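Possible regression after last week's pipeline update?

I re-ran a chain I had predicted before the update to compare outputs. Posting the input and the new output here so someone can diff against the archived version. Not blocking, just want to make sure nothing changed silently.
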Amino acid sequence: RSAGGLALLQSDRVSRRILSTDQLDLKRRGEYKYHWKNAVDKVKLQLDFYLAGGLENYKEDPECVMKQMEFVSKEEGMDDLVKRILDKKNHESTFYTLKIDKDPHDPTDDYFLFLAEEVKSISSLKLFEVPLVKFGMKLAKAFEDQLTTTTLCFVADASSGKASSMLESLVKESKTGVAVLSEPFWMVQLAGLLEASVLASSKIQKLLFALCRLDAWSLREEVSQGDAKTVMITLPGQATVATLLPLVQAVFPEDRHLFAYDGCVASVQRGIYGKRLFRRGQVQNQLASIINGLCQDPVRYATPLPSDSPLTKDVSLLSLAAALAKVPMRQAEVVEAWMSSVDAYFKLKQQETKNGYLPFCFKLGFLTNPVGNFEQGTDSYWSLTALLQFITGCRSRALPEGVVDSAKEWLKDYNQAYAEEQRKIDKTVVLSETDRKLIENCCFQHKLILIGNKTLQDTVLPKEHWTLKQASRAGCSCCGPDPYEQMEEEEAEERQKDGASSGGLDMSAPGAFAMAFKTENNQSSAMGTSQDSRGPSSGNGYVDGKMGFAFDPSRFS
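New output (post-update):
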């Protein structure tokens, strides 16, 4: 009876009644930390099971995996390993990043990088353990010195994983030629090291560069078979976006960035539903399912990443903790994870003139609730083609034959399954009107987030001549701009500009967009920014698809 009473006192329902806002926030942070530690430890355990050749082998000898590791710590040995990894003539071997971890037999507190070499001629993997920082710096230097024709396209998610998983399947099923790297486990660990201040940010950036390029290099044969020359990397869940997205933008400012989102209420339902479906005890039997996607653990989108500076401590959001305290924990944790991702997007957008952050902002509903069912000339058709053009880098030339048709047919089937899944979610995760209002109240604490079914700032609208940056509009957070009204205004402005001279620039030529335009204050700008975003001049505050390219296509040819 006493144990039951103690459990009741520890429950979130009771805690919300008897604890202060700060005490409740602290208690929840402890639970979030516990859930994340369990999730990461279970992935590492699953990895050991796989590398041991099965659960039974691991039980017989828990040290069998470490016995297989080739420990490389000397300078000469690390240099040789880097050369082997980057050997262009070596078509027999592929290297993978397994994890970042401490060595239980090492007396120091250092972290190590664990790699696997897959050799086509043999069935087993060769395993390597190297010092994380020393080897990572060598690998980064080697990739910096190597020219590459492969572009990376990073996808950040704010939809409880639905948008990013849909994009992964879309580029595969439509035969775009884009290789996909799904939610690398090492990224989760790197985010944890940064939040724990274990390594300096400058070293984390170098490691991020090295490991992203290593993963892209492992897919080089797949990339070489298509025209896109692109690897799409999805960040591991909306809970890690606030930590990883600023890093990714700083390290890869010239590559492509895509921010995919859905509404907060829908994301909360999806997050809770995913947690209920997750089977924790299932042993994985494929390496890819272990080192990608955190073994499908929903913690990556349903639970905020442990941090010394969580969103509730942001000086501009001091009322958020009180708003979250009114929401049950299973909902509040998804709300905070979703909001942290969107907040990271806005913070980068506010500094875009300095950091160059100009992503393709994609709203999931434009494809899952299609207007026109993807028939040519309809809104859904333009949304689809714009998305494919950006991901593949084909804005300045036609998409490969059959890609759009394949994407249309796949999406029609996908949306049927999506509608059925949504009916199950609505039945399983019932949110009352009070629940919805409390969730929207949390979002309302962030003055830039539009509640309800509204679009985020600079969402790419369904137009033939799409843009990455929309003209700014006045409006409060609760009612926000309607995308279709905005499109009508922009189209009217474009009609007024018909016949105007382009200033002698041939915008069909590769790299034409990179030429500077003059703003109204006579300052040169490569992105056409201006204080007056409503004016008809070329410095109108957004990239016009008719006047220039959203990126320099010469980089992707």
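Follow-up from reviewer: compared with the archived run. The chain has a mean pLDDT of 85. Marking as no regression found.
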